[in-house]
Amino acid sequence: MVVIDSDLIISYLRKKPKYAVEYLNELFNKEERLKTTIFNYAELLEGAYLTNNVPKNLRYIKDFLAKFEILSFQLIDADLFSQIHAQLLKSGNPVGDMDVLIASIVLNQSEILITRNTKHFSKIPLLKIKDWSQNSSHSSTNINTNK
After folding, report:
1. Where along the chain do its domains lie?
2. Pairing of strands 128-131, 143-145
3. Phi then psi for 38, rounded to 5 degrees?
4. Which has fewest Cβ within 10 Å: 16, 69, 84, 120?
5. Segment 76-117, tens digit of pLDDT
6. CATH node for 2-145
7. DSSP string, 73-117
């Protein structure tokens, strides 16, 4: 199964670009229940708090995210986050904390992250990612496994 990153959810909710809507609708049809992480949930809520109509947008986002399984952050994820973050810092390839937090959950769940943010996520060893913006046919054959 897959974990959906914030960028696809935001594009879907904004209905731009159109292929984001098509892509996520296709996943809804294929998957029993889509997943995202608690950190993606937090990013989306933060976006709502930055808008002019906070109550309406919070309700809209929370109602939409009720369709997802929200993966929580566990002690095992904290350990993996620390290892990855330290490794990236030592190698001179830092990645933002939120991205590494999301990746640690995805890795421990043995899932594939669906994202457009390949610049950051591709730096994380062993993380399987799929760039939803690169394939108009939306097949799941273009999975990048970072070594």
Report:
1. 2-145
2. antiparallel
3. -60, -30
4. 16
5. 999 999 999 999 999 999 999 999 999 999 999 999 999 999
6. 3.40.50.1010
7. P-HHHHHHHHHHHHHHHHTT----HHHHHHHHHHHHTT-EEEES-
